[in-house]
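Section 3.1: Structural characterization of target chains.
Under the original work plan, the team committed to producing a structural model for every single-chain target entering the pipeline before any wet-lab resources were allocated. The record below documents one such target. The sequence was received from the expression subgroup and is listed exactly as submitted; it comprises 398 residues.
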Amino acid sequence: MTTPNGRPLERVLRLYNDREIDADYLELYVGDQEPLNSADPLKRAFASIHQRLDIEFDWMNYKARNGGHFNADNSRSLLGLIDEVRELRTAMQRAGTSLTLTPEYQRVLDGSEVWLVSSGGSPIPEDFTPVLVEKYDPVIGLSDTALELADHSKVNLTVVGNGAYAIVHKFVDPNYDLTFARKKLMAGADERDIERFRREYEIMKGLDFPYVLKVYRYNQEENSYTMEFCDSTLEQYIKRRNNQPTFDFHFRRRIALQFLFGLNYLHRSGICHRDLSRKNVLIHEYSSQAVTVKLSDFGLAKPRDSDFTRVETEIRGTIVDPTLDIFKDFAPINDIYVVGFMLSFIFKGVQQLLPGSTPLGEIVQKCSHSDPTLRYQSVLEIIAAVENLEIKPEGTPA
């Protein structure tokens, strides 16, 4: 009997019942033990998506070399596939499992969604990196459903998030009756990704501060590590509480200061985060409605004097300082640029920078000034400014 949470997945999978799928792609997912004509519906879905992605990626590679224009029909087809993957992933998560894509395919889907348009064709970016099309191994799979602990007991895993390179599950450790999270690198990652992932863990393992996410143990066999579990991202938390009367100025300022103290600790430790965003700051919630901010996702972090990014020039990150020319030259002042956006979201729930017509707006604008020399030069300066903010009574001019 299908459970309520499983019905969306059942409906999605019915779409693949009559879809024509090349036998070569079905064999990648079905294997030798199951007849192709009675393949599991989920395996049919994976094979169908893989086949159609390869068609579009092959054509994209060709067009990138010949004119740089991705045809209108292909653009619409790939946009449809992106939505299809998203819908299937959502339905699977509701059913208690998760879809994973190899990092290469996830990279292309994430990147192409930015420049694809649904009519008239899409100009392929000049810095387009050709897709490594995989026709002989599966590129779509299921995430783990269980984890074996150090005492060899097994616990169930629940998906809480996934990105281009890693997937995060939560689990309850019965030995402590505590919830932890596990971040695992996806299959198919290359040596550079594995090195970056391990380096992310090592950076976080060396940090000890209340407002930085704690990590505990690295598993080299499966390239994963355990860490603190947090209930939500900053983005999810603010959106959920933004219009509640109890979520007032003083509450928001405490969140802002925790975030700033965490960032100040990183800079004092010689580390630039380089990917501050509403999703990379987590919130640990308590039954008393108190919260603790946790800076997380240090995959792009740069310790002082690190040579890991010595050859990287491509600018990366969610919110990018327009004055930064080369990613390896990233400095604390470039993290400070993003702080303006983060404070705007924390205090007002908006994604754009607040105008400089209020004391809070002046702080925001100074953080993200187009001239780095006119910004705050340290996070401590921002902390002092935020601590001095005062809430005005209703009706009082700002």
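The longest strand covers residues 166-173.
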